[in-house]
Amino acid sequence: MREKIVDFLWGTQQRKIWTSVIVGLFAASILIRFIAPVPPPHVALSGEPIFSTGPKWFTNSVLTTIIVDIVLILLALAVRFNLKEIPGAFQNFMEAIIEALYGLAESVAGKNASKFFPWVATIFLFVIISNWSGMLPGVGSIGFYHPTDKDKHGEHAAASESDAGSLLDRQLAMAGGSIVLAAPERVQEAPAAAESEHGKFIPLFRAPSADLNVTFALAISTMVMVQIWGVRFLGGSYFHKFFNFSGPNPFMKGINGFVGILELVSEFARVIAFGFRLFGNVFAGEIVLATMAFLVAFLLPVPFYVLELFVGFVQALVFMMLALVFFHMATISHGSHDEHH
Questions:
Q1: Among 245, 243, 280, which Cα is nearest to 263's?
Q2: What's the rounded Cα separation, in Å, for the pair 62 and 237?
Q3: What are phi and psi for residue 173, nearest 5 degrees?
Q4: Which residue, among 304, 317, 306, has the nearest Cα to 125 in the 3D structure?
Q5: Which of 41, 62, 181, 192 could form a disulfide with 144 if both were Cys (CB 3.0 to 4.6 A apart)?
Q6: What are the structural domain ranges in the chain?
Q7: How many angstroms separate the first and last alpha carbons of the chain?
Q8: Which percentage of the chain shows pLDDT scores above 90?
Q9: What is the SS3 assignment for 307?
């Protein structure tokens, strides 16, 4: 009985200590918020060109997309060339992921799962890494400044408009609460002065899923593959669902023709729904995280980071499953639709 009382009191004391530590850290974070204020979050609806005089298509989201692609390729090569009869922890982890994804594909597509799996698995891995990349330190906060129309400093504008080679001569520095690339002689300048001189801040990295161009490109590619799978399985008869004017009488012919038009419109609507669903969820999550970090930089954003991990996983899974369902539906003709359902 005495031991139980001691354990209870010890546990109560430990809980009080941890509660005091958390409350103290939270209070300190609020105090620091006023002593060293965090700059407002950087918000942009689309990717921004990294270089002011470089190609406009080479945006921060394109750069991050390339990095995500390289990570996927290296991951695939690492798995391919490290297969062992007695798998290690890494191989067991990757096999568990692949088996889970293939099980989902098989539950939807049945015997065609092996054909669709490489596509949908690639979509899932690309989307989930893209979603989670926005939560990495430095994404959205590391960058440099572009000159603006209001910039009156000719020497600084010339330095900002230099090409990629001149970036090697610059140093990382804090300016306005963000890490920027600046000339060595400007590293010691005050943050406010640096911000006013540098002009518009452009992040070097941006989560691909937070760029509407990337999500729409992924949506268009997916729906193009839907049409390709439909033609491969059904041939030219696949397009009958879009242009179907058959029927026993003129009224039914008109009804079937109208339904075909609705089917055609729905294909384009899926592209819009695909693109905006993924973009909206990831972009809104980044805004929430940036806002919480702006209000209270410590502890408060942690639950939102956990939530964004879950949301990023769910969005990748939803995108994969919808693509898989559309692939499978494209292989089913109208005549056999009732047999499958």
A1: 243
A2: 38
A3: -150, 155
A4: 317
A5: 181
A6: 60-136+209-340, 142-203
A7: 64
A8: 21
A9: helix
The CA angle 263-268-274, to the nearest 5 degrees, is 115
What sign has the CA pseudo-torsion 198, 196, 201, 290?
A: positive
∠ CA 327-332-335, rounded to 5°: 160
The more confident residue out of 267 and 298 is 267
Q: What is the pTM of this model?
A: 0.72
> 10 in the Ramachandran plot: left (φ > 0), alpha (ψ -120 to 50) or beta?
alpha
Residue 202: partners with Cβ closer than 8 Å, 6 or more residues away: 48, 49, 50, 60, 143, 144, 145, 146
Give whole-number Cα distances, 141 to 135, 166, 178, 203, 247, in Å.
Answer: 11, 21, 5, 6, 61
H helices present in the chain, as ranges: 2-35, 60-80, 89-109, 113-133, 154-160, 191-198, 212-234, 250-295, 301-330, 337-340
Residue 154 Cα to chain centre, angstroms? 38
Tokens of 202: 């452009």
The whole-chain average pLDDT of the chain stands at 76
- pLDDT per residue as tens digits for the range 229-256: 989 888 888 888 888 777 777 777 788 8
Tell me: pLDDT of 183 over 80: no
Q: How far apart are CA 170 and CA 186, in angstroms?
A: 10
Q: What is the DSSP letter of 49?
A: B
Q: Report the distance separating Cα 284 and Cα 292, nearest Å.
A: 12
Which residue type, as a one-letter code, is found at position 235?
G
In sequence order, the β-bridge partners of residue 173 are 180
Bridge partners of residue 138, in order along the sequence:
none
What is the rounded CA–CA span in Å between residue 109 and residue 103?
A: 10
